[in-house]
Amino acid sequence: MTSTLPSSLPARASAPDAAPLPVSLRIRERLDAAGVAYLANDNIAEHLKDGELEQLEIEVAGKVRELLRSLVIDIDKDHNTDETAERVARMYLHEVFKGRYHHQPKIASFPNVKKLDEIYTVGPISVRSACSHHLVPILGNCWIGIKPGERVIGLSKFSRVADWVFSRPHIQEEAVMILADEIERLCEPQGLAILVKAQHYCMKWRGVKEPQTSMVNSVVRGDFRLDPSLKAEFFELVKQQEAVLST
Ligand SMILES: [Zn+2]
After folding, report:
1. If we measure between CA atoms, which residue out of 161, 166, 122 comes closest to residue 144?
2. Could you report the per-residue pLDDT of 64-79, keeping only the tens digit for each?
3. Does 35 have pLDDT greater than 80?
C-alpha cells in the first residue's frame, strides 16, 4: 500500500496511534526553536503553556519513580517511599526550583520623588538554593546595598526577588550576578552591592565533608564599583547588621 503522507513528515506524526511526546520534550523543542537558553539557573516560565506545569509534574514523578527503582528501593512495599516520587516532583517544580518554572513575583516600583541618594542595606535575607553539580542544598544569607536611582521598591521585595532567583540549581557566583541583574532591572539604582555567605552541603554532606566551610562572594556595580569609600561603607553596614544579630 502506498502512503499518502508526504515523506518529509517525521515518523511519529505519520503514526496516528503513536504515543504523545513527553511534555518536557515538547517544551525543549519549543525553546530550541526559539533559540532560548534553558540552563539550570534560567527561568522558563514565559515559555510554558497553560497546563504544561501540571503535565511536567506527572512526567517528573514518573522519572523519579524509575530513579528509585534503579536505586533498588522497593517502592511498592516500602510505605516510606511509596509517594516519594510525587513529593519530589512537587518539591522541584513548585518549591526548591520554583524560580525556573514560575513567574517572578509581582514587584511594583515607585518614582524616587524625594531624590533619595543615601545608601542603605537590607539583610540578612535567607537564601536557599541547590548546587547545579549535585542538586544538594546551598543555604545562606544575602545582604543588598542600594544607592537609589530613579525608582525605588519596598524592602520586603528584595527578599521576594532573592528567593525567586535562588530557587533554582545554581553555582553561587552566578546566582549573585543573576540577582544583581534582576534588581537593576526592577529599580535602576545608581549603585548596587550584594554579598552572599552560604553553606554548601556539597562540601558538608559529601565530598570533602568539611562542616565549617562556607563561601562568601559579592558583586558591586555602579557607584559602589566607582567609589571605594562607598563600597567600604556597604561592608561596614553589613558588619553592623551581623552584630545586631549576635546581640
Ligand atoms: Zn555540588
Report:
1. 122
2. 999 999 999 999 999 9
3. yes
